Amino acid sequence: MSSSDSDDVPLSRRKQSKPISSDDDSDVPLGKRRKTNGASKLIKEESDSDYGSRRTLSKASSARSTSSLSDANDSSSDSSGSDVPLAKRGATTNGRAKKPTSYKDESSDDSSSEDEVPLAKKKSAAPKKKPASKPAPAKKTNGKVKKESSPPPTKRKTTASSSKKRIKEEEDDSSANRKRIKKEEEEDEKEQEHQWWLDMENQDDSVKWTTLHHNGVMFAPDYVPLPSNIKMKYDGKPISLAPEVEEIAGFFGSMLETDHARNPVFQKNFFNDFRKVARQYKTQPEIKEFAKCDFTSMFEYFQEQREKKKAMTKEDKAKIKAEKEALKEKYGFATLDGRKEKVGNFMVEPPGLFRGRGEHPKTGCLKLRVLPEMVTLNLSKDAPIPPPPAGHKWAGIEHDNTKSWLATWKENINGSTKYVFLGADSSLKGISDMKKFELARELKGKVKEIRARYTAELKDKVMFTRQRATAVWLIDHLALRAGNEKGQEEADTVGCCSLRYEHVTLEKPNILHLDFLGKDSIRFQKSVEVDDQVFKNIKLFKKEPAAVGDDLFDRLKTSDLNKYLQEQMPGLTAKVFRTYNASITFQEQLALLTPKDGTMAEKLLAYNRANREVAILCNHQRTVSKNHSVQMEKIVDKIRALKYQRHKIKQTMLTLEPKLAKKRPELAEPESDLEDEWIEKHEEDLIEKDKEKARQKFAKDNEKRQSEKEKPLPASDLKDILKSLDAKLKDLVKERKTGKVINADKFTIERCDNNLLKIDERIATQRAAMVDKDENKSTALSTSKMNYIDPRITIAWCDKYEVPFEKIYTKTLRDKFKWAAVVDGSWEF
DNA sequence: GTCGGAACTTAGCAGGTTCTCG
DNA sequence: CGAGAACCTGCTAAGTTCCGAC
């Protein structure tokens, strides 16, 4: 860790580059929300049963909000409460760190960490090394890549550390290694791909391309009727269906065991559409009642097919894969301004049943097959028009270079437009991604002013202005979405501007309880301490309409809000606050949580925690896996087992040296969370497991002997072992009663102490894993990682702490974020 | 200004693949 | 070395924002 010489204290780092944006302190007022404080990190969880109780307490998603409330209560002042979750963490600090010993000294031994990276992944790390052949200039300037300022001349930085790495690698010239490097370089050459991010000055927003070529889209395969013995039943009898009808029945049949298929609205919508089609084809007998339909044989058939697919031979699987590859080769790429770029989703959406989320009124409706006649293509005039499937025509051809879509069609359920775009790793997506983050960074510079203005306006005489200010306050502090109006035919979800009376409640001094369904019908349930004036305002807004169903901000629309924001900064809209707050929170948390001289695992843990803060801020949730509680229970049991071991060790020590009880009272203390009943059962289990093991070993040994034509072991061998285990169990029972360990003299105090240490460590590890797991059960980190956190923060951090970013970003994300790889450890959001 | 539609970003889920642990 | 957890990717639904027609 001697290499840490270059590392400054994370926090101080921020100050250093101040001059660039003079008021970059502007985020301080909010900063309080993120203060987190290292203190919470140190809290040790005492009881492991704690999990159990919390779980019962927190049934819904209330765990978070509960803690948020209590946080808010005892934190002295205006912390805005979004710091909610921070208190909970603790215990985890270094638990996990122990596991992967291989990272231990990443600075001196990169070959080991490098080797962990599969070849394919290396590619993106390679370019880093290349420029090292040039004299590495002091490029540490500060990697600000401002729109106007011209970007650094070289592709990638060379930090001291990475050149060190390189040298080391070159010394090691095993041929395999050389070959590998060569391969990397070849791929690199191939990838001399126009690094648009080095040339962002003269970007004209409106024009997306000069030439655009592609092969059109792929259509869903034609329907293949089921074998004739597979039929849905109606009213108890198998019924023959025209393929067109059967297909729809199959859509439902294949998802029989899902929540969708159990949802009455889904059933109703499906059945309506199904019946309509069945009637067209004059199905006999006429299908009239959903309750009389029986799809089980279809369902079973699909299940079977699934099994078969899984059990396919390697060759068959490879074949299928190759076929897929071929199609991808054809449709999966477009040529934009002469450069090959990936297409995102080149396959038009296949027919099926619409899986609307939440209480979507149209969920279950039949999504029709898209035909070429419905699809319009967009490409340049010089591009050959891809031939539509035989016997078909395209709906139209456009040559609009202000649009980035390659194909579009209208979907029949909601009448919305669907598109085929380029992939996330394409230049077009990359450019807009980078612009998004640059805009958020621009907000960083102006946010102080903006906050000052809306804070003042919280007291404005004009109700509209007041509503607007309050809304912006919420958006800024709670990372709410704008909240457009929604139609009757959609799920009832809201964002900031569409919040209604019933979504907010107020509690005495200044606590705001929010509870509503947001995007994707994900519940937003938080309780936060708010600005006094915000509290007053909401009270006021609630008084006026005073009825469930009324808008909280009855005079405010998202367009008003965005217009207001635009006035203060061009391009500023509500969603920019989400990006800004997510990224800045991440950067701050990361600086706070990263242990300077930690192990790789500790650093990664810090990263994930910072990531989790952001996910919580943005309310990114996922459904708790069905067996989460089972898994938790397992860990609790594991810990108990460890505690039992600890208990036995202590008992041994006291048996060896009873006097120790006075000198070291902790040895005599009973383990928490270990009840006699449990111990009894556990001991029985242990012995039973040993017996089972013995039996298996015996059987295996004999098998081996037989194959080697030796005499089998006598059955009495096994019996003896089993008997001795029975005896051991009896001993344990005795020990339980007397508190004395029978064979204690096989140990020494020293050995016991050693073992104690090890057990303690393992318990700590397990506890940490448990906390981590529980905190993560319903939080999805991926969305914020992919959409909200400026990748340059990550890259800079990786550089600074010598973490290979393969450990953080998957291949897909690395490709998506390749534009960000120009920064070094000094870069700041 | 209001409305609806187009275009693009953000989102969770399902299912496949890889990793990990017993 | 096999089961189950974790992770990853693809899919497509559900948002936001902008813009143009009335």
Automatic annotation (TrEMBL):
**Chain spans, region Disordered:** 1-195, 689-715
From the UniProt record, list the reaction(s) this protein catalyses.
ATP-independent breakage of single-stranded DNA, followed by passage and rejoining
Keyword Nucleotidyltransferase assigned to the entry: answer is no
- GO CC annotation terms, alphabetical: chromosome; nucleolus
**One term of GO molecular function:** DNA topoisomerase type I (single strand cut, ATP-independent) activity
The active site consists of: Y788
Give a single Pfam family match. Answer: Topo_C_assoc
**GO process annotations (BP):** chromosome segregation; DNA replication; DNA topological change
Which branch of life, at top level? Eukaryota
Going by the UniProt record, its keywords in alphabetical order are: DNA-binding, Isomerase, Topoisomerase
Q: Tell me, what does this protein do in biology?
A: Releases the supercoiling and torsional tension of DNA introduced during the DNA replication and transcription by transiently cleaving and rejoining one strand of the DNA duplex. Introduces a single-strand break via transesterification at the specific target site 5'-[CT]CCTTp site in duplex DNA. The scissile phosphodiester is attacked by the catalytic tyrosine of the enzyme, resulting in the formation of a DNA-(3'-phosphotyrosyl)-enzyme intermediate and the expulsion of a 5'-OH DNA strand. The free DNA strand then undergoes passage around the unbroken strand thus removing DNA supercoils.
Q: What is this protein called?
A: DNA topoisomerase I
